Amino acid sequence: MKAANFDYHAPSSLEEALALLATLDNPRVLAGGQSLMPMLNLRLGGFDHLIDLGRIEELSDIERVSGAYKIGAMVRQRQIEKFEGFKKDVPLLYQAIRFVGHQQTRNRGTIGGSICHLDPSAELPLVALTMDASLEVASTRGKRQIAFKDFFSSLLSSVLEPDEILTRIHMPLAHERDRCVFLEFSRRPADFSICAVAVVLRVDDQERIEHLKMGIGGLGPSAVRLNTLEQQFKGERFSDSMLSLIQAHIKTLPGEGDLDNTAAYRNELAQVLVKRALLQALQMNKEPSDG
């Protein structure tokens, strides 16, 4: 099966793309196309106009600013994988990108496309949630900022207005003492993850928690943060009882499953992976730095 007919547009500037989006009837924006094109070929969606953002150079830059990286929405996933600055400054993103699809799909897939698609099992939305990223969106009416935690509206849907385009992702820098771990479980390498977790841990010399972030993807329609526990454990010394409390809390989280992976199975995976990620992060704090 192939996609239904549509008119193709390839603007060379953001202003041109926004004007098309605001004036055309039933348009759709194309980023990397790694999710959209298969859906079109299966006739799972349709539109009258396709606006390809691939020629808009200003959406493909990476800029380090005070406290964050501004990543253009059209930055290819392969660019992120090869960008050395992320290894030190945003290690959670640097780790997670290698779990995203295959190298071939990362050559075409974009960070903005993945963020906007909001697949519950996708790695990049989980990183954005865990790192407290914010999003810059634009329309002919102007620009606005959206905290990523407020971006999700329903399954595979966001709060983007029909005439808005995601232009940049503001990804905060990790603290120099943060220890970041991203883990996921899938049946085979490069398969969609069944469950993924992201952890950012910072402890002092007495192993008291100064800063903690925990995110889980794959349990339901969107990734979730364990915000209550993150605040509860500040100032406490890491312990086995703390791990037990975290796992008990995860067990209470609502979830959704399918014929292959039940909600209970996904929840059990989340408990195991969060514990494993926290222990790995704690061990990283005990190891001497590379200097």
Structure description:
This protein is α+β, with helices and mostly antiparallel strands. It folds into three domains: 7-52, Uridine Diphospho-n-acetylenolpyruvylglucosamine Reductase, domain 2 (2-Layer Sandwich), CATH 3.30.43; 57-172, Uridine Diphospho-n-acetylenolpyruvylglucosamine Reductase, domain 3 (2-Layer Sandwich); 179-285, Enolase-like, domain 1 (2-Layer Sandwich), CATH 3.30.390.50. 32% of the residues lie in helices and 25% in strands. It contains eleven helices and 14 strands. The chain has a five-stranded antiparallel sheet. Strand 4 and strand 5 (68-72) form a beta hairpin. Helix 10 runs antiparallel to helix 11. It is globular. 38% of the residues are buried. The model is unreliable at 287-291 (pLDDT under 50).
Brief account:
The protein is α+β, with helices and mostly antiparallel strands. The chain has helices spanning 14-23, 36-41, 77-82, 85-89, 91-96, 103-106, 111-117, 123-130, 227-232, 240-251, 263-286, and strands at residues 7-9, 27-30, 49-52, 62-65, 68-72, 134-139, 142-147, 152-154, 157-158, 165-172, 179-185, 195-203, 209-217, 224-225.
